[in-house]
Specification:
alpha/beta; about 45% helix; 11 strands; about 25% strand; 5-stranded mixed β-sheet
């Protein structure tokens, strides 16, 4: 059956079309468009009119693509920005009326479960203990694996759009602002990080757009543009991440737009994403860094 999955993310709307034949899945088409649903209101639990209009417009385009590809079944899910919005019911109703697409709002726990199901398909069985980190626009998910078994799923409303709205960092960001952001993360995540430290994990597996961009920029800087594209999961050097971190925190918006490998959809939030990632690496003493090409939308597809 030809199936379409739509992930209505806080920062990006993702479309994935695939043919499902029993246990076999063949990917047919994928696309992403910037939604910025959380712009100017995510921490106020509101979806503004401009953001809603932008979202509907994207879904109209996706509907055309879906029809062109002869899709038989559509599954659309919405995550953090929508689930926390007081006007989400109106937004979902408007989508259904104008596009015919029916959206299911999932919880943070369900989001983490789908991310795990996607990432898990890309890893070998010998990874042992590791932490999956999915940095989104509205929320960030942590999935702890011990002895190749799922132990902990946790979602925090600490997405990059929320941090951007809360701290409104300078361009370039200042050392004081970095300190303030890390202090806030320590306050919000301190107890959870203490809890999972006992698992003695040394490996971080990053998924979704922020880590895709990190890997793309590392490839352009140290290898060739397509260096990591062949694999479903990739290990990258801690030194290369450290270099990228130092470069990004010293750049302004204009400079980041011109950086090789930068995803322009993420140019505003990449500084916060690497600050968040660096904070987690440092607090947990992680030494092995990996990226998975699969995440929530693939996880949803694998559950169907």
């Amino acid at each position: 059956m030809r199936t379409a999955v739509i992930d209505l993310g806080t920062n990006t709307f993702n479309l994935l079309i695939a043919d499902i034949n029993g246990a076999e899945i063949d990917f047919v088409y994928k696309a992403k468009m910037p939604s910025k649903l959380g712009e100017d209101g995510i921490n106020d639990s509101i979806l503004h009119e401009d953001a809603c209009s932008r979202g509907v417009k994207i879904l109209r385009e996706y509907k055309k693509i879906i029809e062109k590809h002869g899709v038989e079944e559509v599954h659309a899910i919405a995550t953090s920005a929508v689930r926390s919005a007081n006007n989400k019911d109106l937004f979902i109703k408007n989508i259904a009326e104008k596009t015919g697409i029916h959206v299911n709002v999932i919880s943070g726990q369900e989001e983490a479960e789908l991310i795990y199901k996607g990432v898990n398909r890309t890893l070998n069985d010998n990874e042992g203990n590791y932490l999956i980190l999915d940095i989104g626009g509205g929320s960030t998910e942590f999935i702890l694996i011990e002895n190749n078994q799922l132990k902990t799923l946790k979602s925090f409303p600490l997405g990059m759009a929320r941090l951007m709205d809360k701290f409104k960092p300078s361009e370039p960001i200042t050392n004081q602002e970095i300190w303030s952001i890390e202090s806030y993360l320590k306050l919000e995540l301190g107890d959870f990080l203490k809890e999972i430290k006992s698992s003695n994990i040394k490996t971080l597996v990053g998924s979704s757009g922020s880590f895709d961009t990190i890997l793309s920029m590392i490839a352009h800087q140290f290898y060739k543009a397509g260096h990591f594209r062949k694999n479903l999961s990739n290990e990258f050097e801690r030194e290369h991440f450290n270099y990228l971190y130092q470069v990004l925190i010293q750049t302004n918006l204009k400079e980041r737009r011109e950086m090789p490998g930068m995803d322009l959809i993420r140019v505003e939030m990449m500084v916060l994403a690497v600050i968040f990632t660096n904070f987690i690496i440092r607090e947990l003493g992680l030494v092995k860094l990996m990226q998975s090409r699969y995440s929530l939308k693939e996880g949803l597809l694998f559950t169907l």
